[in-house]
Amino acid sequence: MLLTYLLARGGAEVTLLESRHDFARRFRGDTLAPGVLEYLDTLGRADALLADVPHTRTDAFRWHTATRTWTLVDYRGASARFPFYALLPQAEFLPWLADRARAHGATVHMGARFSALRHDDSGRVSGVAYTVDAAQHEIDAALVVGADGRNSKVRQVSGLAATELGASLDILWHALPRRDDDPSYSGLDLFGTPHGSLALLDQGTDWQLGWTIRAGSLAEVRARGVDALRDAAVGALAWLDGRLDDLGDVSDLTLLPVRITTIERWTRPGLVLLGDAAHVVSPVGGNGINLALADAADLANRLVGPLRRTPPDPRQLDVAAAGLESARRPGVEREQRAQVRTERAAAERI
Prior knowledge:
Blueprint lengths: L1 H8 L5 E4 L12 E2 L1 H9 L3 H7 L3 E3 L1 E5 L4 E6 L10 E3 L2 H14 L3 E4 L1 E8 L5 E8 L2 E6 L3 E3 L6 H6 L3 E3 L4 E9 L10 E6 L2 E7 L3 E9 L3 H7 L1 H11 L17 E4 L3 E3 L3 E2 L2 E3 L5 E2 L6 H22 L5 H35 L2
Helix pairs in contact: 1-4, 1-8, 8-9
InterPro entries: FAD-bd, FAD/NAD-bd_sf, PheA/TfdB_FAD_monoxygenase
GO molecular function: FAD binding; oxidoreductase activity
Keywords: Oxidoreductase
């Protein structure tokens, strides 16, 4: 969505296909880093975003045990203007950004499900086919951008091979209504439990709880039953006693398989992938959305000029797409390697 906004703002013709009929995503990346807020500030949008969209703020990422709390990351020195992470639900953030993209002339099609890539006589990607409420549509494009997440259908159809780097954890998520007398925390907190950890994210009106389990162990967790998860949560946070009684089964929780995935390359002629479609990262630490936004900002800078030419030169667009990968891939892969090490160590304690 950010790329759509930036390209439209720069005067390029851009169409976004959103597979859902709304933006009501749950348990997805909601954390905007100080650097991202600073970038939005250069566009004149950060203050308006924080004023318009309900959110919470956290100035630290903390790890808690029964006897001690460690501050893993302190964000107060990360930015003079925005010394915090902003936790904005995607269901609020994405419509806000879409409205501003439309105001600059972008076309946003909701409920538009990608089905196939189209190619010209040379084999270059030249557009997409998609469906809206079972009706078939096609659209031509000088460049197709696949930004459809960790299970990217665009990536699968393109034939670009993905390699799992060995993620060791999965997360079971649950949303819990917040009460006025609930304790206060940093907003990004991890609590040690006898068999893993419990994440607690402050979503303003809700708490988002996440139990870490070994990757692929859902069947074992189901066999132990939901009481084991409930007991672990109450053992770490006694004020949750009685608050999780509505959990009748492990199936009441939302499983997020944690994957760390690299792609052989992010581009084909006429096509570029970004965000989780190009590089899946762990949700721990909230880096996925921020890496994706950084991809979008970099790619927009490279594309605006070529896209404003009539007609756009395909070679210039492909050079711009390759430039994104050249600039962004090394840093992303460093982050992925660090995450693999962290998750292996965490899995050994479960």
